Each structure stands twice: as C-alpha cells, then as structure tokens.
Amino acid sequence: MLSWEYPPRIIGGLARHVEGLSSALASSGNEVHVITLDFPGAPYEEREGSLYVHRVPVSVPAPTFHSWVLLFNHFFEKRAGQLAHEFGAPDMLHIHDWLTVPAGVASKHLLRAPLVMTFHSTEASRSSNSPSTESAMVEGLEWWGSFEAARVIAVSGWMRAEVLSSFKLPEDKVEQIPNAVEPLKFEGPIDAKAARARWNVTEGQKMITAVGRLTSQKGFDDLIRAYPAIRRAVPESRLVIIGDGHMRAELETIAEQEHVRENTIFAGFISDGELVSALRSSDVVVVPSRFEPFGIIALEGMAARVPLVVSRVGGLAEIVEDSVDGIEVEPNNPSAIAAATIKILSDRELASRLVARGEEKAKSYSWGNVAKKTLGVYQDAAKVTKFE
Amino acid sequence: MSEGSKRLLSTLLVLGAQSPEKALPVEEFAMKLGIGVSELQPDLDRLAESGYVVTTRRGDSTRVYLTGTGVITASSAYS
Fold it and tell me: Which terminus of chain A, N or C, has fewer Cβ atoms within 10 Å?
C-alpha cells in the first residue's frame, strides 16, 4: 500500500482510509506493508502483527511541491524494491490518489505485481475554478494511474461517476467501496465535562463542532457567518472548529467581523483521542463543505452519537439521509446552516431520533466490510493482470 | 495565512526541514527564497508563535524547521 499520508500524518480522509483498510486486511490474515512519508516524532519502521509501516524520509531537497512529489515517489520505489528483496514480491500493489501514481506504476512493472488505485478525490473537482499547469500534471497522473491499474476503487457513488466520466474508464473497471469508521474508538467512558471545559464550554452551553482542514472546500466561513443567527436563537453556545490550515487567519477575521470571535474556538489539530472526546461531548456536528468526495467526519459524528447538519454535496449526501439520520442543507448557504442547527439544538426529540438512526448507520460502515470488498477487487485485479 | 507564509511552509516541506537534525539555517533559507533575513524574520516569528515552525540556535546560526502541525498545514493545500 503506497500512501503519502498515514497516522500521525493525517492531512485528510485518505490517512484514515489507509489506516482502517490496512489494519483490517492485516487482521484477516494478510501481510500488509504501508509505504508512506516520514513525520516528526513518528518511527521510521513500525510493526503490529502482520501490518508493517515503513516511513520514508526524502533525503533530497526539491524546488517545488510538485517536483517534491515526483521525488518522494522515487524514494517509495526504492523502499518497495528493498521490501520485495526482503519479503518477496508483493501479490498486490495499492495506490491512493495521484500522489503515489509514479511509484505505483513503476513498481507494478518492476515487481510484476497487479496494481489497484483508489480515488479519494480528483484534481478536476478540487481545482475547478483555478486550472493551472500543476493541475494539468496532476490530472495526467490521475489518468495514468487509472489506466495502469487493473481495477479502480472510488470512495463514493459520486466519486465513481466522476472517475468514469473524467478518465473514460469501462464501467466494470471501477468499484465503489466507501470509507468506514471504527466503532470501538467511540465506546467507553469519557469525561464530557472536562472535554467541554477544554474549549471553554460551560455547563448549560451548547457545543457546536466542526472538523476539518481550514480550506475553502470545507465551507467553515459559511458556518461562521451562520453563527450570529444561531446565537440569537441559542445564546448559550460555543462554536468549536477543530483543524488547521491556510484559511485560519481569514476565518478568525470573519469571526471578528460577525462579532462571534469571542465564542468561536479555533482548536487547531488535536490527537485522535481528543477528537473522539470532543465529538462525543458535542451537541451538534456541522459539516458545511462545498465539495466532499466522501466526508468521513459524518460517519464519525454518527458513531459518536451526535446529530449532524451536512451540506448536500458529493459523498456526504450519500451517507446522510435527510431528516432521518441528519439534516441536509444546500452548500454555500449560511441561513440554511443556521436554521438546521437551531432546529437540532432546540428539538431534543428530533436530535435523539437522528442520533439513534445515525448510530445504526455507522455500524454498517465497518473496516471489516471494506477489507472484504477490497480483497474481492484484488482478486479481480490479479485475474485480469498479464505481463508479457 | 498570507501567501508569503504559505510559501515559507511549503518551501520548508520540500526542502525536508522537518526535524531539529534537518533544520535549515535562517540565512540559507532566506537566500533560497531570494529575500533578506530581516524580511524573513517577522514571518518566521509569526509562524513560530502559531506552532507551525520551531527556530533553534546551533552554534552561531539560527535554524528553522517545521513542526508536525506545520507539515500537515503545508501539505493540506494540495490534498
């Protein structure tokens, strides 16, 4: 498995997917090697049972991000070659998004192993408003990976349709396999009072939580613009935004302009354990994304037994059934976000109903199921792969 | 975050400065960016205050490297 992110290097849902899938594959008796990038404080080599994690340092400087990606792919290839020498050639190679396509394709031909590629997102959907030469390179790599892969996986129906139309792939080459959630992470006792106190949420106050990278895609600016209306209806509340990113200063400014800075907490990145505590201590989780190929935070919210407000976009709209296990709102609409959030915070019966159905739904998204379906894709990929 | 700060984080990432051992001398970093140390220093101070970078003294020189949060923030623009 080749991935540029793996915990504790968590940029987005991709890291969670690779962690959950590789761990479930290893638990079902497979030997799994994850090749990923090094990260401050994380060991270069890690092993748990038959799951091996190899964190590769990039020892040569690069001039730009995109040339750095090509460079780290060479280091991934080198590690893949070393592992093949040490453990034998792999039965399967699995790459995730464009970032590991060069190493995946090269390893496929050098090690003569079938290749599977998972799309968590596409460049076209990420950068539709800002085409650039870098985007052209990324789209080229995406096409190349989807062409070289014997089978392609998309994390949602929306993503599958996007991949089919963008790369003109045959229908039977692309399988939809979702992300999942580990329910055990959300079990056991927590000190909700302490978790809320950490974000200055006092007794009697409602905790409104949002989680993700602070980028335009996530729509946190819309949530902050919705917050004054929410506060007028629910004055005793705090908005806790968990995550970090380039938009942080801009979001802080918007919170000031909207006169809600004092009640908006920018929590930054927090550990997995802290995230679980924060989610379980929340009164509502809002996912105001403008674009979301999957939206794993919605599943995590359901598993944490918290009612959800989500944008009706991409994979999110496939996970959440409106008014059954969450409330859907149109994207880019602060008024709609405010109305749905107020509805949940002021109607306990509705909130309980959404939570109960959400918890049931979260249970159906297990990493065990994802691993089983992925193994099926591996078998198909092995059958159709031929080397001359 | 300003475009300048984004550029600093991204440059530290691609230069591999993400641990005390791989920390980059500030003078060298400024030279690679094509700016003077006095122009760079206020941005570095702001990034250090926000927890994205750490500056340390080694011998006569001040060096800089990305924290885990800095690595993730630098990478998040591309994911």
Answer: C
Using the Cβ of B20 and the Cβ atoms of chain A, whether some distance falls under 8 Å is answered with no
Average pLDDT value over all residues in chain A = 95
Q: Domain span at residue A159?
A: 13-180+367-384
Residue pair A68/A76 in contact by the 8 Å Cβ criterion:
no
User: Nearest-CA distance from A211 to chain B in Å?
Assistant: 14
Give residue-wise pLDDT tens across range B10-69: 999 999 999 999 999 999 999 999 999 999 999 999 999 999 999 998 888 899 999 999
- Which pTM was predicted? 0.91
Task: Report the complex ipTM.
Answer: 0.92
Are A197 and A132 within one domain? no
Contact flag B69-A244 (C-beta cutoff 8 Å): yes
Residue boundaries of the structural domains of chain B: 3-74
Provide the CATH topology of domain B3-74: Arc Repressor Mutant, subunit A (1.10.10)
Q: Distance between CA B50 and CA A49 in Å, rounded?
A: 38
Domain shared by A105 and A240, yes or no: no
Instruction: Tell me which chain B residue has its CA closest to the CA of residue A216.
Output: B77
Is there a single domain that holds both residue A376 and residue A360? no
